[in-house]
Amino acid sequence: STQTTFLRKNINYNALETVTSKYGDTIEIPCNNGRVVEAEVTFVKWKYDKDGNILVKHRDQNATVSNDVNYKNRVSIKDFSLVITQVAMADQRTFTCMVVVEEDILEYPVQLAIYKVPSQPQITNLTTVMAIGKPTTLGKCRSEGANPAANITWFKNKTPLVTDGAAIKITTNVDVDEETGLSTTTSTLEYTAVKGDIDAKFTCQVQHIKSANMDSSPLVFTVNYPTEKVNLQVVSQGPFKEGDNVTLKCTADGNPPPSSYNFYINGEEKTVDSSTYTLTNVTRENTGEYKCSLVDNEDIVASVPITVEYLDVVLSSTGKIVKKLGESLEMTVDVKASGTPQTSWKKGNAKLNSLPKFDKLTYSDSGVYECIVSMAGLKKTQTFELVVEGSPVIKNLIKERGEGMTKVLKCAAEGFPKPTVQWSVNGSNVESASEHGKVTYSLTIVPNGNLTVSCTVSNVLGSDSKSINVSALVEDVTMDKQDQKDEYSDQTILAVGIVVGLMLAVLAIGLAYWLYMKKFRQGSWKTGEKEDGSAEESKKLEENQSQKADM
């Protein structure tokens, strides 16, 4: 046979062409980037590494696949390109396309790169509690089935954590599956907590060149730390008055918080399995400073002041006070209070400007007095009733013209208890009106001649009496009114004139009366429907008039 010698070209393997395929996909590896002319080719051979024959295709013939177990059922050829199905990590190697053309042998090596996107990160907490200042392995983050291996970064509140050799320590391991050749990345976080890590969210993130970053679900840990201080507060709303209940609450800044506390009540230590303590029915003696502390460390303590407001009002006299007319009375009020009180006085419904003080009592001073003292939501009221008593005194006895021939006598008196009246003659329509020890009695009569009528007022303290002359003449009332007007004049000359006038009036009235009695029969009393005089008094009055007529 004739031996043919082929010349082989030198191939530069440092400039390998690279083809990338996703794990599990079908890949088509071109021969010389598809620039092979079929008419010039005697045959094409695909192989891997040095001696790993895959298949051979002669011109105008079907391809022949080798018995290589790695590719026997997974390879084919298409336009001199090698087609591999179900690409696995074992296919990540160099494939060579050997082309025989006339007297040359050409080789085109191609590097196949396989990639696989990692799985979602799986974060596992290795604890639920962190203690301040104590390194704690918090969690483990894992991502499987990647090529190349994935990277894992830890975050706290979206801020990346980096190993610092002190508070943060991150350990990362990459394991390759012997069967699939895929990588699993595992990262463990060891962390030393601080107080600011309360409610902090820890996550891990997987990064890969062929996928977007993937974040895990967050982990939140309970942060335990010792109590550094306690706080005592008054839960109940003040201000507090005697009889109220006051609740205290002690809180600590540690976690977990203490289940019991010491409360110091009036200097006495009380340990309670609660954070609250209630003072019931407080009094002014409960005013003071209250404390609470930890049971196992009494040096960690807090305090709060409590003031129980109180108001005491004492009058020098209360109830009913009976005094004599003209006497003096001075009231005093003693106020004891936890603050500055406001004091006001009232007599009935009228406000007073100051504390009642009486140098000389009058009947108008009688009444009910009220002392109102208020402060900080408290209000106290004290009262006394002042009664001014005095022997009755007739202040005025006058006569007025009534209807027809009637005369109305009015006897005005002062005194308390209310005086009673007694007239010396028959009368009717006895009326009275009383106010502040003053009382006016009225008597209506029909005189038939000159009369002298007496008004006597009395009570348990004494009596007083005055008389007035009454005639049957109408002018008698007019003159009497003029007499009363002049009686209160301060001018001496006018007073003398009144006296002279009165004397003349008396003479005229006497003469008229004598003439009247001579001409007419003796008259009789004429009373109204409410006559208060007795029949006996009327008879005596008629006898007197008869005797005067005979004279």
TrEMBL record:
It is a single-pass type I membrane protein. This is CD166 antigen homolog A-like. It is found in: Cell membrane; Cell projection, Axon; Cell projection, Dendrite. Residues 24-107, 121-222, 226-307, 392-471 form the Ig-like domain. Residues 527-551 are annotated as: Disordered. InterPro entries: CD80_C2-set, Ig-like_dom, Ig-like_dom_sf, Ig-like_fold, Ig/MHC_CS, Ig_sub, Ig_sub2, Ig_V-set. It comes from Sinocyclocheilus anshuiensis. SMART domains: IG (SM00409), IGc2 (SM00408). The keyword Transmembrane applies. Pfam families: C2-set_2, Ig_3, V-set. One of its GO terms (cellular component) is plasma membrane. Its main location: membrane. Keywords: Adaptive immunity, Cell adhesion, Cell membrane, Cell projection, Disulfide bond, Glycoprotein, Immunity, Immunoglobulin domain, Membrane, Repeat, Transmembrane, Transmembrane helix. One of its GO terms (biological process) is cell adhesion.
